[in-house]
């Protein structure tokens, strides 16, 4: 005959374990927004004019170490965005003439934008689904900044590191 051992009974003091409270803390989703990302990254936006040559645009990108620029008209209003990917497509279509083309020839005109209140996870989803890596943040008519997929990932990684530290502190005490 096999005897079944009984687990010790410690009473009903707590129905939740320490690990359950940790799980509850981890489940809390990021409440970060585009504004939070811009607070850490900055609000600087590099722009070019619609009639600037692609050669000039690439020099501006190289000088600033960036992968996209906002295209603004003479009144400072955004009329498009021009990215490295747009320029590569231009070279694929017109290999000999791309540097002579102008920003408005290659820029994306129908720009997906965000607001400062746009949640980080919505930004990430929009960029992933739309297959683009940069999203201008508009505060009304004003361009508050430009967020890249790298900015979003870096911010989220910092959040996860902080969450891991807090969990470790909960466990260790």
UniProtKB/TrEMBL annotation:
<dbReference type="Pfam" id="PF00571">
    <property type="entry name" value="CBS"/>
</dbReference>
<keyword id="KW-0129">CBS domain</keyword>
<dbReference type="InterPro" id="IPR044725">
    <property type="entry name" value="CBSX3_CBS_dom"/>
</dbReference>
<protein>
    <submittedName>
        <fullName>CBS domain protein</fullName>
    </submittedName>
</protein>
<feature type="region of interest" description="Disordered">
    <location>
        <begin position="1"/>
        <end position="22"/>
    </location>
</feature>
<dbReference type="InterPro" id="IPR051257">
    <property type="entry name" value="Diverse_CBS-Domain"/>
</dbReference>
<dbReference type="InterPro" id="IPR000644">
    <property type="entry name" value="CBS_dom"/>
</dbReference>
<feature type="domain" description="CBS">
    <location>
        <begin position="107"/>
        <end position="163"/>
    </location>
</feature>
<feature type="domain" description="CBS">
    <location>
        <begin position="39"/>
        <end position="101"/>
    </location>
</feature>
<dbReference type="InterPro" id="IPR046342">
    <property type="entry name" value="CBS_dom_sf"/>
</dbReference>
């Amino acid at each position: 005959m096999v005897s079944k051992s009984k687990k010790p009974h410690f009473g009903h003091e707590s129905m939740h374990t320490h690990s359950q409270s940790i799980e509850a803390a981890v489940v809390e989703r990021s409440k970060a927004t585009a504004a939070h990302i811009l607070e850490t990254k900055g609000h600087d936006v590099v722009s070019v004019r619609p009639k600037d040559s692609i050669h000039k645009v690439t020099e501006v990108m190289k000088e600033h170490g960036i992968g996209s620029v906002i295209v603004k008209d003479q009144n400072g209003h955004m009329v498009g965005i021009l990215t490295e990917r747009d320029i590569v497509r231009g070279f694929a279509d017109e290999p000999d003439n791309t540097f002579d083309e102008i920003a408005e020839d290659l820029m994306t005109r129908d720009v997906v934008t965000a607001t400062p209140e746009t949640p980080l996870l919505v930004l990430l989803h929009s960029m992933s689904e739309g297959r683009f890596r940069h999203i201008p943040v508009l505060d009304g008519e004003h361009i508050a900044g430009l967020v890249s997929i790298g900015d979003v990932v870096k911010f989220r990684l910092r959040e996860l590191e902080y969450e891991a530290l807090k969990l470790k502190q909960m466990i260790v005490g």
